[in-house]
Amino acid sequence: MRQRRHPNVAAVALANKNARIVWAMLSDDTAYEPALSVKAA
């Protein structure tokens, strides 16, 4: 993604993804599970 778009677009996209993961963890009071955040190929 970094090669095709401006570097700030990629940074904002990753920050948004991380924010959604953290929000879900805090709202559900759960621990981080890396297997759930990886998309199936």
Keyword list:
41 residues; Transposase; 2 helices; elongated; mainly alpha; 63% helix
How is this structure best summarized?
This is Transposase. By secondary structure, the protein is an all-alpha fold. 63% of the residues lie in helices and 0% in strands.
Describe this structure in words.
The protein is mainly α and 41 residues long. The chain has a domain at 7-33. It is built from two helices and no strands. It is elongated. This is Transposase.
Radius of gyration: 13 Å
Number of DSSP helical runs: 2
Helix % is 55-70%
Query: What amount of the residues lies in strands?
Result: under 5%
Low-confidence stretches: none
Number of strands: 0
Q: Averaged pLDDT, please?
A: 82
Q: What is the overall shape? A: elongated
Question: Which sequence of SSEs, written as H and E, runs from N to C?
Answer: HH
Structural class: mainly alpha
Q: How many angstroms separate the termini?
A: 17 Å
Could you give a short account of the major beta sheet? Answer: none
